[in-house]
Model the fold of this input.
Amino acid sequence: MKNYRAELTGVFGDPVDDNPTGVVEEAAFAAKKLNYRYLTVKVRPEDLQKAMDSVRIFGMKGINLTMPHKIKVIPYLDELSPAAEIIGAVNTVIQKDGKLYGENTDGKGFVIALKNSGETLEGKTVTILGAGGAARAIAVECALNGAAHINIVNRSSEKGMELAVLIREKTGSSAKYLNWTGNLTIPADTDILINATSIGFSPNVNDRPDIDYSSLTGKMCVCDVIFNPAQTLFLKAAAENGAKTVTGLGMLVQQAALNFTLWTGEEAPVDVMEEALKREL
Ligand code: NDP
Done:
C-alpha cells in the first residue's frame, strides 16, 4: 500500500521567519530519501500550550523550540534529558510512544563543532561572554565535557552570577563570574574564548563585544555562536592576534544533525546539511 502521509518535524518560535534550520533539515531528509517535512511555524507565547497539544495530536516526530519558548515549553513535556534539566531550557522535543522528551542540542552541537576543529576540553579554562540561552547550554556542556574552569562574563551581573553558581552546583566544575565593564581584559590563562552573546548578528555586523582585543593571544581558541555572518568582527580581530578561530556555522549544523538523528534514528548527512546552510546564508 502506498503511504502519502509524511512524518512531521519543525520549529515553533516568534519571530521565526528568518530561522534557516528548515533548509538544513529538508536537505538532509531529501538526501536520505525520507518522507519527512520540517515546518517553520510562528507560535505566539500565549498559544504555546495548544501548539504542544498539536504536536501530540498530529503525531509529530518532534519539534524545535526557539525564542521565546525554550524555557516555557518545559511544563508541557513528559521527561527531560539530564543536560536539559540542568540548563533549564529545551531546544528539541522528541515524541516517542506518545511521550514528549525534551533535549538541548545547542551546547552539544557546540562541543562537537569545537572537537571537529581539533580542540579538546579536558582540563581547559573556558571564558564565555554571555549568560543567555546559548551561553547556558554551552557552559553546561563544556563543564560536562571536562573543562577545568569556566569564567562567565555578562552585561547583567545577576544573570551571569546565577549561571556561575549553576555550573558549580550542578556540574561540580569550577566556575566564576567576571564583571563586564568596558574593554574587558580576557584572563591570560583562557584556553577557549566564546562569544555567546547576540552581538554581531546580521544586520549589526559592525558590532563586536567590548573587550581588550590586545589581551587575545595565539594560544587561545576563539569561537563565535553567531553564524550570520560566519566571519564576525570578533573572530577577525582574534585571528589578527594570532588566535585560532571557530565560527558559529559548525554549531548550527551539528545541533541540526543531532536533531535529525533523534527524530529519524538515522545518521545525519552532515556534509549535505553544511552545504545547504552555506548556500542559504
Ligand atoms: P539570549 O537573548 O538568551 O541571550 C543574549 C545574550 O547576549 C545575553 O547574555 C545578553 O546579555 C547578551 N547581549 C546582548 N546584547 C548585548 C550587548 N549589547 N552587550 C553585552 N551583552 C549583550 O539569546 P541566545 O543566548 O538564545 O542567543 C545568543 C546568540 O546565539 C543569538 O545571536 C543566536 O542567534 C545565537 N545562537 C547560535 C546558535 C548556533 O547554532 N550557532 C544556536 C543558538 C543561538 P544580558 O543578559 O545582559 O541581556
In short: Residues 106, 109, 130-135, 154-156, 159, 197-199, 201, 225-227, 248, 251-252, 255 surround NDP (CB under 6 Å). The two ends are 40 Å apart (CA to CA).
